[in-house]
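C-alpha coordinates please, single chain.
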Amino acid sequence: MSEVRTRFAPSPTGYLHVGGLRSALYNYLFAKQQGGVVLLRIEDTDQSREVKGAVENLLAAFHWLGLEFDEGPHVGGACGPYVQSQRLTLYREHVKRLADANHAYPCFCAPATLDEMRAAQGARGEPPMYDRRCKSISPADARRRIERGEAHVWRMAVPGGQIVRVHDLVRGDVEFATDTVDDQVLLKSDGFPTYHLANVVDDHYMRISHVIRGEEWLPSAPKHALLYACFGWERPRFAHLPLLLNPDRSKMSKRGGDVAVEDYRRNGILPAALINFVALLGWHPQDEREIFSVDELVKEFSLERVNKAGAIFDGAKLRWMNAEYIKRESEHDLYAHVAALLTEQIEICGESRVRYAVATLRGGTEVYGDLADRIRATLGPRSADDPESIALLANAEARKLVTEFQRRMSEIPPEIWNDFPALEAAFKAAANDSGQAVGLKGKSLWQTVRAALTGQLHGPELAKLVGIWGRARVMAELENAASATTAVSS
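Here you go.
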Protein backbone atom coordinates (compact mmCIF):
# COMPACT_ATOMS: atom_id res chain seq x y z
CA MET A 1 0.00 0.00 0.00
CA SER A 2 1.70 3.16 -1.16
CA GLU A 3 -0.80 5.63 0.32
CA VAL A 4 -1.13 5.95 4.08
CA ARG A 5 -4.77 5.47 5.03
CA THR A 6 -5.94 5.25 8.64
CA ARG A 7 -9.37 5.04 10.18
CA PHE A 8 -11.27 5.66 13.38
CA ALA A 9 -14.03 3.09 13.67
CA PRO A 10 -16.25 3.61 16.73
CA SER A 11 -19.45 1.85 17.65
CA PRO A 12 -22.44 4.20 18.12
CA THR A 13 -22.98 3.11 21.71
CA GLY A 14 -22.76 6.46 23.49
CA TYR A 15 -20.48 9.43 23.87
CA LEU A 16 -16.91 9.88 22.65
CA HIS A 17 -14.62 8.51 25.37
CA VAL A 18 -11.22 10.19 25.82
CA GLY A 19 -9.66 6.83 24.96
CA GLY A 20 -11.53 6.90 21.66
CA LEU A 21 -10.43 10.47 21.14
CA ARG A 22 -6.80 9.46 21.59
CA SER A 23 -7.16 6.65 19.03
CA ALA A 24 -8.83 9.02 16.59
CA LEU A 25 -6.21 11.71 17.23
CA TYR A 26 -3.24 9.39 16.70
CA ASN A 27 -4.79 8.10 13.48
CA TYR A 28 -5.34 11.69 12.38
CA LEU A 29 -1.84 12.89 13.30
CA PHE A 30 -0.10 9.93 11.69
CA ALA A 31 -2.10 10.16 8.46
CA LYS A 32 -1.56 13.92 8.15
CA GLN A 33 2.11 13.64 9.03
CA GLN A 34 2.52 11.09 6.23
CA GLY A 35 0.44 13.09 3.75
CA GLY A 36 -2.27 10.45 3.86
CA VAL A 37 -5.99 10.10 4.53
CA VAL A 38 -7.98 9.44 7.70
CA LEU A 39 -11.54 8.16 7.49
CA LEU A 40 -14.44 7.63 9.88
CA ARG A 41 -16.29 4.32 9.83
CA ILE A 42 -19.31 3.56 11.99
CA GLU A 43 -19.27 -0.02 13.27
CA ASP A 44 -22.93 -0.57 14.14
CA THR A 45 -23.19 -4.34 13.75
CA ASP A 46 -24.29 -4.80 17.37
CA GLN A 47 -27.74 -3.28 16.93
CA SER A 48 -28.77 -4.04 20.51
CA ARG A 49 -26.17 -1.60 21.90
CA GLU A 50 -26.74 1.25 19.48
CA VAL A 51 -27.69 4.56 21.12
CA LYS A 52 -29.90 6.96 19.23
CA GLY A 53 -28.08 10.17 18.34
CA ALA A 54 -24.64 8.73 19.12
CA VAL A 55 -23.30 9.32 15.59
CA GLU A 56 -24.52 12.92 15.60
CA ASN A 57 -22.93 13.50 19.01
CA LEU A 58 -19.70 11.96 17.77
CA LEU A 59 -19.58 14.23 14.73
CA ALA A 60 -20.41 17.26 16.88
CA ALA A 61 -17.54 16.42 19.23
CA PHE A 62 -15.01 16.17 16.41
CA HIS A 63 -16.31 19.38 14.85
CA TRP A 64 -15.84 21.15 18.21
CA LEU A 65 -12.32 19.74 18.41
CA GLY A 66 -11.55 20.89 14.88
CA LEU A 67 -10.63 17.39 13.71
CA GLU A 68 -12.19 16.68 10.32
CA PHE A 69 -12.14 13.33 8.51
CA ASP A 70 -11.28 13.04 4.83
CA GLU A 71 -13.85 10.29 4.24
CA GLY A 72 -16.84 9.07 6.19
CA PRO A 73 -20.62 8.79 6.33
CA HIS A 74 -20.96 12.57 6.65
CA VAL A 75 -18.61 13.51 3.78
CA GLY A 76 -18.66 10.46 1.51
CA GLY A 77 -15.70 9.00 -0.33
CA ALA A 78 -14.73 6.36 -2.86
CA CYS A 79 -14.80 3.43 -0.37
CA GLY A 80 -18.28 3.83 1.09
CA PRO A 81 -20.71 3.20 2.46
CA TYR A 82 -18.96 3.97 5.74
CA VAL A 83 -21.64 2.48 7.99
CA GLN A 84 -21.34 -1.28 8.49
CA SER A 85 -25.07 -1.98 8.66
CA GLN A 86 -25.18 -0.80 5.04
CA ARG A 87 -22.57 -3.39 3.97
CA LEU A 88 -24.23 -6.63 5.12
CA THR A 89 -24.28 -8.28 1.70
CA LEU A 90 -20.51 -7.87 1.45
CA TYR A 91 -19.92 -9.62 4.77
CA ARG A 92 -22.24 -12.54 3.95
CA GLU A 93 -20.46 -13.05 0.63
CA HIS A 94 -17.14 -13.26 2.46
CA VAL A 95 -18.41 -15.73 5.04
CA LYS A 96 -19.50 -17.96 2.14
CA ARG A 97 -16.06 -17.55 0.65
CA LEU A 98 -14.48 -18.67 3.92
CA ALA A 99 -16.91 -21.61 4.25
CA ASP A 100 -16.19 -22.78 0.72
CA ALA A 101 -12.50 -22.89 1.61
CA ASN A 102 -13.17 -24.68 4.93
CA HIS A 103 -12.10 -21.64 6.93
CA ALA A 104 -15.54 -21.22 8.50
CA TYR A 105 -18.32 -23.55 9.67
CA PRO A 106 -21.91 -23.20 10.96
CA CYS A 107 -22.52 -23.59 14.68
CA PHE A 108 -25.98 -24.61 15.92
CA CYS A 109 -25.30 -24.48 19.68
CA ALA A 110 -27.99 -22.71 21.67
CA PRO A 111 -27.02 -19.95 24.14
CA ALA A 112 -27.83 -22.28 27.06
CA THR A 113 -25.44 -24.88 25.68
CA LEU A 114 -22.67 -22.30 25.41
CA ASP A 115 -23.32 -21.16 28.98
CA GLU A 116 -23.02 -24.73 30.26
CA MET A 117 -19.82 -25.17 28.25
CA ARG A 118 -18.22 -22.07 29.75
CA ALA A 119 -19.32 -23.00 33.27
CA ALA A 120 -17.73 -26.44 32.96
CA GLN A 121 -14.52 -24.95 31.60
CA GLY A 122 -14.44 -22.46 34.45
CA ALA A 123 -14.91 -25.24 36.98
CA ARG A 124 -11.88 -27.01 35.48
CA GLY A 125 -9.83 -23.81 35.55
CA GLU A 126 -9.76 -23.58 31.75
CA PRO A 127 -10.18 -20.41 29.69
CA PRO A 128 -13.65 -20.08 28.15
CA MET A 129 -13.47 -21.18 24.51
CA TYR A 130 -15.83 -22.86 22.10
CA ASP A 131 -15.12 -26.60 22.12
CA ARG A 132 -15.64 -26.88 18.34
CA ARG A 133 -18.27 -29.58 18.59
CA CYS A 134 -20.14 -28.27 15.54
CA LYS A 135 -16.99 -28.34 13.43
CA SER A 136 -17.41 -32.11 13.07
CA ILE A 137 -20.87 -31.80 11.49
CA SER A 138 -20.68 -32.88 7.85
CA PRO A 139 -21.29 -30.20 5.22
CA ALA A 140 -24.37 -32.10 3.97
CA ASP A 141 -25.94 -32.30 7.44
CA ALA A 142 -25.13 -28.67 8.11
CA ARG A 143 -26.74 -27.66 4.82
CA ARG A 144 -29.93 -29.59 5.61
CA ARG A 145 -30.21 -28.02 9.07
CA ILE A 146 -29.72 -24.55 7.61
CA GLU A 147 -32.35 -25.21 4.92
CA ARG A 148 -34.79 -26.29 7.65
CA GLY A 149 -34.34 -22.85 9.20
CA GLU A 150 -32.39 -23.96 12.26
CA ALA A 151 -30.78 -21.01 14.03
CA HIS A 152 -27.02 -20.89 13.60
CA VAL A 153 -23.96 -18.67 13.55
CA TRP A 154 -20.82 -18.97 11.45
CA ARG A 155 -17.51 -19.50 13.23
CA MET A 156 -13.93 -19.15 12.06
CA ALA A 157 -12.11 -22.48 11.81
CA VAL A 158 -8.89 -21.63 13.62
CA PRO A 159 -6.08 -24.03 12.67
CA GLY A 160 -4.40 -25.79 15.58
CA GLY A 161 -0.73 -26.11 16.40
CA GLN A 162 0.42 -22.92 14.70
CA ILE A 163 2.12 -19.72 15.80
CA VAL A 164 0.81 -16.40 14.48
CA ARG A 165 3.39 -13.63 14.54
CA VAL A 166 2.16 -10.04 14.38
CA HIS A 167 4.60 -7.17 14.05
CA ASP A 168 3.37 -4.24 16.11
CA LEU A 169 4.82 -0.79 15.48
CA VAL A 170 4.71 -0.06 19.21
CA ARG A 171 5.54 -3.45 20.76
CA GLY A 172 7.64 -5.18 18.13
CA ASP A 173 6.94 -8.82 17.22
CA VAL A 174 4.18 -10.45 19.24
CA GLU A 175 3.49 -14.19 18.94
CA PHE A 176 0.24 -16.07 19.56
CA ALA A 177 -0.35 -19.84 19.66
CA THR A 178 -3.46 -20.70 17.65
CA ASP A 179 -4.41 -23.28 20.28
CA THR A 180 -5.26 -20.33 22.52
CA VAL A 181 -7.34 -18.54 19.86
CA ASP A 182 -11.09 -19.16 19.99
CA ASP A 183 -13.16 -20.16 16.97
CA GLN A 184 -14.62 -16.69 16.88
CA VAL A 185 -18.17 -16.08 15.67
CA LEU A 186 -17.97 -14.27 12.33
CA LEU A 187 -21.64 -13.98 11.38
CA LYS A 188 -24.40 -13.92 13.98
CA SER A 189 -27.78 -15.61 13.68
CA ASP A 190 -29.42 -12.27 12.82
CA GLY A 191 -27.23 -12.00 9.70
CA PHE A 192 -25.02 -9.27 11.14
CA PRO A 193 -21.26 -9.78 11.25
CA THR A 194 -19.18 -9.59 14.40
CA TYR A 195 -16.50 -6.99 14.84
CA HIS A 196 -13.75 -9.35 13.72
CA LEU A 197 -15.11 -10.18 10.27
CA ALA A 198 -16.47 -6.73 9.44
CA ASN A 199 -13.33 -5.02 10.66
CA VAL A 200 -11.03 -7.09 8.45
CA VAL A 201 -13.26 -6.95 5.37
CA ASP A 202 -13.74 -3.20 5.67
CA ASP A 203 -10.09 -2.43 6.36
CA HIS A 204 -9.21 -4.36 3.21
CA TYR A 205 -11.74 -2.73 0.89
CA MET A 206 -11.17 0.71 2.38
CA ARG A 207 -7.45 0.22 1.72
CA ILE A 208 -6.39 0.86 5.31
CA SER A 209 -2.61 0.83 5.52
CA HIS A 210 -2.22 1.24 9.30
CA VAL A 211 -4.53 0.04 12.07
CA ILE A 212 -3.87 2.24 15.12
CA ARG A 213 -6.04 1.21 18.05
CA GLY A 214 -6.03 0.58 21.80
CA GLU A 215 -4.07 -2.14 23.54
CA GLU A 216 -7.31 -3.90 24.49
CA TRP A 217 -7.57 -5.04 20.86
CA LEU A 218 -4.16 -6.75 20.85
CA PRO A 219 -5.67 -10.21 21.66
CA SER A 220 -7.77 -9.83 18.50
CA ALA A 221 -4.69 -9.37 16.32
CA PRO A 222 -4.11 -13.13 15.68
CA LYS A 223 -7.75 -13.61 14.68
CA HIS A 224 -7.46 -10.76 12.23
CA ALA A 225 -4.10 -11.95 10.94
CA LEU A 226 -5.59 -15.39 10.28
CA LEU A 227 -8.52 -13.88 8.41
CA TYR A 228 -6.19 -11.85 6.20
CA ALA A 229 -4.30 -15.05 5.43
CA CYS A 230 -7.53 -16.97 4.69
CA PHE A 231 -8.60 -14.32 2.21
CA GLY A 232 -5.12 -14.03 0.72
CA TRP A 233 -4.96 -10.33 1.52
CA GLU A 234 -2.04 -8.17 2.57
CA ARG A 235 -2.26 -7.17 6.21
CA PRO A 236 -2.20 -3.53 7.26
CA ARG A 237 0.47 -2.54 9.76
CA PHE A 238 -0.66 -2.65 13.38
CA ALA A 239 0.03 -0.26 16.26
CA HIS A 240 -1.60 -0.92 19.62
CA LEU A 241 -1.66 2.08 21.95
CA PRO A 242 -1.04 1.85 25.70
CA LEU A 243 -3.93 1.78 28.13
CA LEU A 244 -5.21 4.96 29.74
CA LEU A 245 -4.92 4.69 33.52
CA ASN A 246 -6.34 6.58 36.48
CA PRO A 247 -3.79 8.15 38.88
CA ASP A 248 -4.05 4.98 41.03
CA ARG A 249 -3.06 3.02 37.89
CA SER A 250 -6.47 1.37 37.56
CA LYS A 251 -7.84 1.18 34.04
CA MET A 252 -9.79 4.25 33.00
CA SER A 253 -13.32 3.21 32.10
CA LYS A 254 -16.63 4.74 31.09
CA ARG A 255 -17.98 3.97 34.55
CA GLY A 256 -15.28 5.95 36.31
CA GLY A 257 -16.68 9.49 36.10
CA ASP A 258 -15.93 12.26 33.64
CA VAL A 259 -14.36 10.48 30.68
CA ALA A 260 -16.52 11.82 27.85
CA VAL A 261 -15.34 14.61 25.59
CA GLU A 262 -18.68 16.35 26.13
CA ASP A 263 -18.04 16.36 29.91
CA TYR A 264 -14.79 18.25 29.44
CA ARG A 265 -16.42 20.62 27.00
CA ARG A 266 -19.24 21.26 29.49
CA ASN A 267 -16.70 21.89 32.24
CA GLY A 268 -14.84 24.56 30.29
CA ILE A 269 -11.90 22.66 28.84
CA LEU A 270 -10.77 24.22 25.56
CA PRO A 271 -10.64 21.96 22.47
CA ALA A 272 -7.01 22.90 21.78
CA ALA A 273 -6.04 22.09 25.37
CA LEU A 274 -7.85 18.75 25.32
CA ILE A 275 -6.20 17.74 22.05
CA ASN A 276 -2.78 18.81 23.34
CA PHE A 277 -3.26 16.91 26.60
CA VAL A 278 -4.60 13.72 24.99
CA ALA A 279 -1.77 13.72 22.43
CA LEU A 280 0.72 13.39 25.30
CA LEU A 281 -1.06 10.38 26.81
CA GLY A 282 1.32 7.71 25.61
CA TRP A 283 3.38 9.72 23.12
CA HIS A 284 6.35 11.95 23.86
CA PRO A 285 7.95 14.62 21.64
CA GLN A 286 11.64 14.90 20.95
CA ASP A 287 12.14 17.74 23.44
CA GLU A 288 10.61 18.88 26.75
CA ARG A 289 7.84 21.01 25.25
CA GLU A 290 4.31 20.45 26.50
CA ILE A 291 2.25 23.01 24.59
CA PHE A 292 1.56 22.16 20.93
CA SER A 293 -0.84 23.34 18.27
CA VAL A 294 -2.42 20.68 16.07
CA ASP A 295 -0.11 21.66 13.20
CA GLU A 296 2.90 21.25 15.50
CA LEU A 297 1.62 17.86 16.65
CA VAL A 298 1.26 16.75 13.03
CA LYS A 299 4.83 17.78 12.35
CA GLU A 300 6.21 16.10 15.49
CA PHE A 301 4.13 12.92 15.71
CA SER A 302 5.76 9.55 15.27
CA LEU A 303 4.59 6.05 16.17
CA GLU A 304 8.18 5.26 17.16
CA ARG A 305 7.75 7.55 20.19
CA VAL A 306 4.54 5.93 21.41
CA ASN A 307 5.16 4.27 24.78
CA LYS A 308 4.34 0.69 25.68
CA ALA A 309 3.50 1.44 29.31
CA GLY A 310 0.08 2.70 30.35
CA ALA A 311 -0.48 6.46 30.35
CA ILE A 312 -1.73 8.22 33.50
CA PHE A 313 -4.70 10.51 32.94
CA ASP A 314 -3.99 13.36 35.36
CA GLY A 315 -6.98 15.70 35.61
CA ALA A 316 -4.88 18.31 37.46
CA LYS A 317 -2.41 18.36 34.55
CA LEU A 318 -5.28 18.86 32.11
CA ARG A 319 -6.56 21.83 34.13
CA TRP A 320 -3.04 23.30 34.24
CA MET A 321 -2.74 22.95 30.49
CA ASN A 322 -6.18 24.50 30.01
CA ALA A 323 -5.05 27.43 32.15
CA GLU A 324 -2.06 27.90 29.86
CA TYR A 325 -4.39 28.18 26.87
CA ILE A 326 -6.76 30.56 28.68
CA LYS A 327 -3.77 32.68 29.66
CA ARG A 328 -3.07 33.18 25.96
CA GLU A 329 -6.61 34.30 25.11
CA SER A 330 -7.36 37.94 24.43
CA GLU A 331 -9.71 39.76 26.81
CA HIS A 332 -12.27 39.92 24.01
CA ASP A 333 -12.21 36.15 23.43
CA LEU A 334 -12.21 35.33 27.13
CA TYR A 335 -15.23 37.55 27.73
CA ALA A 336 -17.03 35.90 24.80
CA HIS A 337 -16.46 32.49 26.39
CA VAL A 338 -17.73 33.38 29.88
CA ALA A 339 -20.49 35.86 28.98
CA ALA A 340 -23.08 33.08 28.64
CA LEU A 341 -22.37 32.13 32.26
CA LEU A 342 -22.85 35.71 33.49
CA THR A 343 -26.08 36.84 31.85
CA GLU A 344 -27.63 37.96 35.15
CA GLN A 345 -24.54 39.95 36.14
CA ILE A 346 -24.39 41.60 32.71
CA GLU A 347 -28.05 42.56 32.93
CA ILE A 348 -27.66 44.07 36.41
CA CYS A 349 -24.17 45.59 36.23
CA GLY A 350 -23.75 46.29 32.52
CA GLU A 351 -21.42 44.77 29.98
CA SER A 352 -18.53 47.20 30.51
CA ARG A 353 -18.21 46.41 34.22
CA VAL A 354 -18.42 42.64 33.64
CA ARG A 355 -15.78 42.93 30.91
CA TYR A 356 -13.62 44.82 33.39
CA ALA A 357 -14.21 42.07 35.96
CA VAL A 358 -13.14 39.42 33.45
CA ALA A 359 -9.93 41.30 32.68
CA THR A 360 -9.25 41.94 36.37
CA LEU A 361 -10.00 38.52 37.84
CA ARG A 362 -8.75 36.23 35.05
CA GLY A 363 -5.43 35.39 36.70
CA GLY A 364 -5.06 31.71 37.57
CA THR A 365 -8.21 30.67 35.71
CA GLU A 366 -8.14 26.98 34.85
CA VAL A 367 -11.65 26.67 33.39
CA TYR A 368 -14.24 29.25 32.38
CA GLY A 369 -16.66 28.15 35.08
CA ASP A 370 -14.14 29.02 37.80
CA LEU A 371 -13.74 32.54 36.45
CA ALA A 372 -17.51 32.96 36.23
CA ASP A 373 -17.87 31.77 39.83
CA ARG A 374 -15.20 34.23 40.94
CA ILE A 375 -16.96 37.11 39.20
CA ARG A 376 -20.35 36.12 40.60
CA ALA A 377 -18.88 35.99 44.09
CA THR A 378 -17.20 39.37 43.64
CA LEU A 379 -20.42 40.98 42.43
CA GLY A 380 -22.54 39.11 44.94
CA PRO A 381 -23.55 40.18 48.47
CA ARG A 382 -20.82 41.00 50.95
CA SER A 383 -19.87 38.05 53.14
CA ALA A 384 -19.80 38.31 56.92
CA ASP A 385 -17.05 40.62 58.19
CA ASP A 386 -14.10 38.81 59.69
CA PRO A 387 -13.30 39.54 63.36
CA GLU A 388 -10.00 41.25 62.54
CA SER A 389 -11.75 43.73 60.25
CA ILE A 390 -14.38 44.47 62.88
CA ALA A 391 -11.68 45.08 65.49
CA LEU A 392 -9.72 47.30 63.11
CA LEU A 393 -12.70 49.52 62.33
CA ALA A 394 -13.35 50.02 66.03
CA ASN A 395 -10.16 52.08 66.22
CA ALA A 396 -10.72 55.86 66.48
CA GLU A 397 -8.31 56.62 63.62
CA ALA A 398 -10.10 54.06 61.45
CA ARG A 399 -13.46 55.68 62.13
CA LYS A 400 -12.07 59.05 61.09
CA LEU A 401 -10.56 57.53 57.95
CA VAL A 402 -13.84 55.91 56.88
CA THR A 403 -15.70 59.20 57.23
CA GLU A 404 -13.05 61.15 55.32
CA PHE A 405 -12.69 58.51 52.62
CA GLN A 406 -16.45 58.32 52.14
CA ARG A 407 -16.54 62.08 51.57
CA ARG A 408 -13.71 62.09 49.06
CA MET A 409 -15.13 59.14 47.09
CA SER A 410 -18.50 60.88 46.87
CA GLU A 411 -16.76 63.83 45.20
CA ILE A 412 -15.42 61.77 42.27
CA PRO A 413 -17.36 62.98 39.17
CA PRO A 414 -19.88 60.46 37.76
CA GLU A 415 -18.09 60.29 34.39
CA ILE A 416 -14.91 59.07 36.08
CA TRP A 417 -16.73 55.99 37.38
CA ASN A 418 -17.09 54.74 33.80
CA ASP A 419 -13.42 55.39 32.95
CA PHE A 420 -11.68 52.52 34.72
CA PRO A 421 -8.04 53.72 34.46
CA ALA A 422 -9.10 57.20 35.63
CA LEU A 423 -11.16 55.67 38.43
CA GLU A 424 -8.20 53.64 39.66
CA ALA A 425 -6.12 56.81 39.91
CA ALA A 426 -8.94 58.76 41.57
CA PHE A 427 -9.53 55.96 44.09
CA LYS A 428 -5.86 55.78 45.06
CA ALA A 429 -5.72 59.58 45.40
CA ALA A 430 -8.85 59.63 47.59
CA ALA A 431 -7.42 56.93 49.85
CA ASN A 432 -3.98 58.53 50.17
CA ASP A 433 -5.42 62.02 50.77
CA SER A 434 -7.79 60.63 53.39
CA GLY A 435 -4.95 58.82 55.11
CA GLN A 436 -2.83 61.97 55.13
CA ALA A 437 -5.75 63.96 56.62
CA VAL A 438 -6.16 61.57 59.58
CA GLY A 439 -2.57 60.44 59.97
CA LEU A 440 -2.73 56.92 58.45
CA LYS A 441 -0.46 55.56 55.75
CA GLY A 442 0.99 52.38 54.29
CA LYS A 443 -0.36 49.02 55.44
CA SER A 444 -2.56 50.54 58.15
CA LEU A 445 -4.22 52.82 55.60
CA TRP A 446 -4.95 50.15 53.01
CA GLN A 447 -6.08 47.53 55.50
CA THR A 448 -8.57 50.02 56.91
CA VAL A 449 -9.89 50.92 53.46
CA ARG A 450 -10.25 47.24 52.59
CA ALA A 451 -12.00 46.46 55.87
CA ALA A 452 -14.44 49.30 55.28
CA LEU A 453 -15.24 48.22 51.72
CA THR A 454 -15.20 44.44 52.02
CA GLY A 455 -15.16 43.47 55.69
CA GLN A 456 -12.02 41.41 54.99
CA LEU A 457 -8.29 42.05 55.28
CA HIS A 458 -7.44 40.22 52.03
CA GLY A 459 -8.99 40.05 48.56
CA PRO A 460 -8.89 41.49 45.02
CA GLU A 461 -6.98 44.65 44.22
CA LEU A 462 -9.08 47.45 45.70
CA ALA A 463 -8.40 49.98 42.93
CA LYS A 464 -9.95 47.54 40.47
CA LEU A 465 -12.68 46.27 42.79
CA VAL A 466 -14.30 49.71 42.92
CA GLY A 467 -14.59 49.64 39.12
CA ILE A 468 -16.12 46.18 39.17
CA TRP A 469 -18.62 47.21 41.84
CA GLY A 470 -19.56 50.63 40.51
CA ARG A 471 -20.44 53.81 42.37
CA ALA A 472 -23.71 52.69 43.96
CA ARG A 473 -22.17 49.56 45.53
CA VAL A 474 -19.00 51.33 46.71
CA MET A 475 -20.87 54.20 48.35
CA ALA A 476 -23.35 51.81 49.96
CA GLU A 477 -20.51 49.77 51.48
CA LEU A 478 -18.84 52.91 52.80
CA GLU A 479 -22.14 54.16 54.22
CA ASN A 480 -22.62 50.84 56.04
CA ALA A 481 -19.06 50.95 57.33
CA ALA A 482 -19.48 54.55 58.53
CA SER A 483 -22.73 53.66 60.29
CA ALA A 484 -21.11 50.67 61.94
CA THR A 485 -18.12 52.63 63.21
CA THR A 486 -20.41 55.40 64.50
CA ALA A 487 -22.45 52.82 66.36
CA VAL A 488 -19.29 51.38 67.90
CA SER A 489 -18.01 54.82 68.97
CA SER A 490 -21.31 55.75 70.60
